[in-house]
Design goal:
Blueprint (H helix, E strand, L loop, with lengths): L2 E4 L4 E5 L3 E7 L5 E8 L52 E4 L10 E9 L17 E10 L4 E10 L4 E10 L5 E13 L4 E9 L2 E9 L4 E6 L11 E6 L9 E6 L5 E7 L5 E7 L6 E3 L4 E3 L3 E6 L2 H17 L12 E3 L1 H4 L5 H14 L3 E4 L27 H11 L3 E6 L3 E3 L3 H5 L18 E3 L5 H17 L4 E4 L21 H19 L4 E4 L9 H4 L4 E3 L6 H12 L7 E2 L1 E3 L12 H8 L5 E3 L7 H16 L1 H6 L1 E4 L9 E7 L5 E8 L10 E2 L9 E9 L19 E3 H6 L2 E2 L9 E8 L1
Parallel strand pairs: 21-22, 21-31, 22-23, 23-26, 26-27, 27-28, 28-29, 30-31
Antiparallel strand pairs: 1-2, 2-3, 3-4, 5-10, 6-7, 7-8, 8-9, 9-19, 9-20, 10-17, 10-18, 11-12, 11-14, 13-16, 14-15, 15-20, 16-17, 24-25, 32-33, 33-34, 34-39, 35-38, 36-37, 36-39
This protein binds (2R,3S,4R,5S)-2-(hydroxymethyl)piperidine-3,4,5-triol.
The site of (2R,3S,4R,5S)-2-(hydroxymethyl)piperidine-3,4,5-triol has 11 residues, from loops.
């Protein structure tokens, strides 16, 4: 068992291979967080807590003469509101008599083998891992509120996941105004916070800041996890870098509104609270009702940020994403969106498909515009019926043709949306989230369907399933193209309107699960205008997510790098698109675009008929290279090898197979200079006692300018010691021209 309760000292020990988590119950039943970090061999870490009398930090009545005992200063395992803890709380409730005090104390616990799952929500699957669970029950004896903290310990993977169950065990109604998934207090630490901010087409940009004496709040109130603030944060020591130092990750498995609050308190301790945002949330708990929160994935390492990323990459790939798509080779796809937008018919689609098949693509994805009156983005959403005026012969004709070319066929949907100009909206205006008597806020001229309603989810299941059954479809792109506003359900009474957004997420997850159950062979690629719902919640249903609507390779470097802190390359949808790029106008060589897109799920998003012969002829080579290194890219260890802060003119990253027998390194020079400095990149994760041979080079440039007076020394067949590549680094040849890039493959000899 990875969990032990020391009855005498009232301490819970949760141990993974390299980490330890401790919880202690004090003499008055307060549940205290005493430690999370590297293994300490079950030493009682409660000595870290100093019970100091701090002015204005009050004391529970039974300790009124022990002034060091205060909810405001002791590290809490699940913080609540109203009983003298003035820091950000995880739980806030209003009792039937209007009281806002919740004072949680230990009631019981249970340690079980295996795990329970939060109902209707994504979770970390047990799969082939040994998992032990602690269920720790806390009670507010006065109101009858029961809070059960669930801890799932994935010992071999150095992961602990948490979620919380809140039950009204009284005979009166209780309103929950905040129900975070977890909170955790770190005694007296100086830490940095790394979070991932952004905007549409520029998602998950890493930002590192000192945790000062204020409340840092990373949150979304858009109804989705959002482009703007990803529900993943890292806390690390001031001196932590990629390779050294304490790092803690908190990843919420949720696709709706969220908040990660980090507060450094008056005494220098740091609290982290993560869960559903309380901005638009309230939940009515009638007697006997239970509310379950989303799950948070916790990881800790003292080996720096690279190792932290590895822990997340492995758990997401192996225990979060649907296992059907874990080990199979996913097809290199071509998507018609940037190639045609809405301007297509069956003839054009078939021509593009033929040209893509000839070039070596493995799946054709028909994007937006194939249904209803969807000839532009003002109409049709909700009417999931093939537009036979555009696609004569229906979907099966296109799918059969694509299949006959040896490619799979995929289709775009945007299930949770409706246009005013649609048959669905005309028949059911009350199915949209709109405020009565108010004109709705529009986003891309569309409204959001009320996924909290069963009739809406049933309609979507039926209409989408009908299309999926009508043709040989292997893939669905599931889009979501606006933020929510006017969140009001015409189906719920006024005192339940605070529940709409979470019920919305439960409805979405239910639809995804029902479609997964009915069509287990169909792979769903998540999307929300690119990466607006790029989170571990969606990944439970969808092994890959369109990373960003920005397909421009140089912008993509930071987007994909930022994404890599928490999420594996196997989840990052990444395509080669046309040049000049449609989002930035920048021109980037075809091979550089491909080398960047290869560090993702790889595909093309352009009209191959419009490519130059030279570019088109490169596609097959690119696909062959990607397929050759597929296992290494999708399952190898990923390393960020450059630091833009100090090396602002290039970006480098690499993959090393688990057995260290091969490695792949890519370099993109983003700012080419005359008479350049030599770029040295220290490789990571290699077998330092082995010798590696350079056996594959793919480059955007074949030659250097004539006047470079330089002959390449990076040649196929060169041999390098593993220790040399790690400690000295690889010395890249100078590269000239526009955004040059090179990919090198090394194999152990
Ligand atoms: C936004 C997506 O991210 C794009 O790839 C494309 O599918 C459009 N929506 C279609 O409307």
């Amino acid at each position: 068992m990875a969990i032990r309760f020391d009855e005498k000292r009232k301490i819970f020990f949760l141990n993974t291979k390299n980490t330890e988590y401790q919880i202690k119950i004090n003499d008055i039943g307060m549940v205290l967080h005493t430690y999370y970090g590297a293994s300490v061999d079950q030493a009682d870490m409660s000595y870290m807590i100093k019970e100091i009398d701090r002015g204005f930090s009050g004391n529970p009545y039974e300790c009124k003469n022990q002034r060091g005992i205060s909810a405001d200063t002791l590290p809490q395992e699940y913080s609540s509101d109203g009983a003298g803890d003035y820091r950000v709380s995880a739980l806030s409730a209003v009792m039937a008599n209007g009281s806002r005090t919740t004072d949680l104390r230990y009631k019981a616990h249970n340690i079980i083998s295996g795990r329970e799952n939060p109902t209707g929500l994504p979770y970390v699957r047990q799969e082939n891992d040994k998992v032990d669970t602690l269920k720790l029950v806390m009670e507010d004896a006065i109101s009858g509120l029961l809070v059960t903290l669930h801890y799932q310990v994935f010992a071999d993977k150095d992961i602990i996941s948490r979620y919380t169950e809140i039950k009204n065990a009284s005979d009166a109604e209780i309103i929950i105004n905040k129900a975070a998934s977890m909170s955790m207090d770190f005694c007296g630490r100086n830490m940095d916070l790394i979070h991932f901010h952004g905007r549409h087409a520029m998602e998950r940009i890493p930002e590192r800041e000192t945790v000062g004496h204020n409340i840092h709040r990373i949150a979304s109130k858009r109804g989705t996890s959002s482009h703007q603030n990803n529900p993943f944060v890292i806390l690390c020591d001031k001196n932590t870098d990629e390779w050294h130092g304490d790092s803690y990750g908190f990843m919420l498995m949720y696709s709706g509104e969220h908040a990660e609050e980090i507060e450094k308190d008056q005494a220098g301790s740091i609290r982290v609270v993560s869960g559903i945002s309380d901005d638009h949330f309230s939940w009515k708990l009638s007697p006997g009702d239970v509310f379950e929160t989303p799950e948070v994935i916790l990881a800790y390492t003292n080996k720096g940020l690279s190792e932290l990323s590895y822990l997340y990459h492995r758990i997401i790939r192996e225990n979060v994403c649907p296992k059907e798509f874990r080990d199979i080779k996913r097809p290199v796809l071509i998507n018609n969106w940037e190639g045609t937008y809405f301007d297509f018919d069956d003839k054009k689609i078939m021509e593009i498909a033929k040209s893509a098949a000839d070039a070596g693509c493995e799946m054709f994805v028909l994007d937006d515009g194939w249904f209803g009156e969807r000839n532009h983005d003002h109409a049709g959403l909700g009417d999931w019926v093939v537009n036979e005026k555009k696609l004569e012969g229906g979907m099966s004709k296109i799918a059969d043709y694509v299949n006959s070319l040896g490619m799979k066929f995929g289709l775009w949907f945007e299930p949770e949306m409706v246009n005013e100009d649609s048959d669905l909206y005309r028949a059911h205006p009350d199915w949209a989230l709109t405020d009565p008597d108010r004109k709705p806020v529009m986003g891309r001229d569309q409204l959001v369907l009320d996924m909290s309603r069963k009739d809406v989810v049933d309609y979507l299941y039926d209409s989408i399933s009908t299309v999926l059954r009508s043709a040989n479809i292997s893939y669905v792109k599931w889009d979501f193209n606006r933020s929510c506003a006017n969140v009001f359900s015409h189906d719920l009474p006024s005192d339940k309107q605070g529940e709409v957004l979470h019920r919305f997420m439960l409805g979405t997850y239910d639809l995804m699960q029902r479609l997964r159950d009915s069509f287990p062979h169909i792979m769903i690629e998540g999307c929300s205008g690119g990466g607006g719902r790029f989170d571990a919640g969606i990944m439970f249903y969808s092994p890959q997510i369109w990373c960003s609507d920005n397909t421009e390779a140089i912008n993509r470097l930071i987007i994909q790098k930022g994404t890599s802190y928490g999420y594996p390359v196997s989840t990052m949808g990444s395509h080669v698109s046309a040049s000049p790029n449609h989002q930035s106008g920048r021109e980037v060589p075809f091979m550089t675009r491909a080398l960047v897109a290869m560090s993702g799920t790889f595909g093309y998003e352009l009209d191959p008929r419009k490519l130059s012969d030279a570019d088109r002829s490169m596609i097959r080579k690119q696909i062959d290279t990607f397929n050759k290194y597929y296992e290494l890219i999708q399952k190898g260890r990923y390393y960020r090898l450059s630091d833009e802060a100090t090396e602002s003119y290039f970006t480098s990253w690499g993959f090393v197979s688990e057995d260290k027998s091969e490695a792949l390194v890519t370099l993109v020079v983003t700012d080419v200079r005359a008479n350049p400095e030599i770029i040295y990149v220290k490789m990571r994760g290699l077998d330092e006692s082995a010798t590696y041979e350079l056996d594959g080079i793919l480059s955007s440039i074949e030659t250097s300018p004539d006047d470079a007076f330089f002959e390449s020394s990076n040649k196929i067949g060169n041999k390098y010691g593993g220790a040399a590549l790690v400690n000295g680094g690889f010395a890249f040849d100078p590269m000239f021209g526009v955004y040059p890039a090179i990919q090198l493959h090394f194999k152990r000899v």
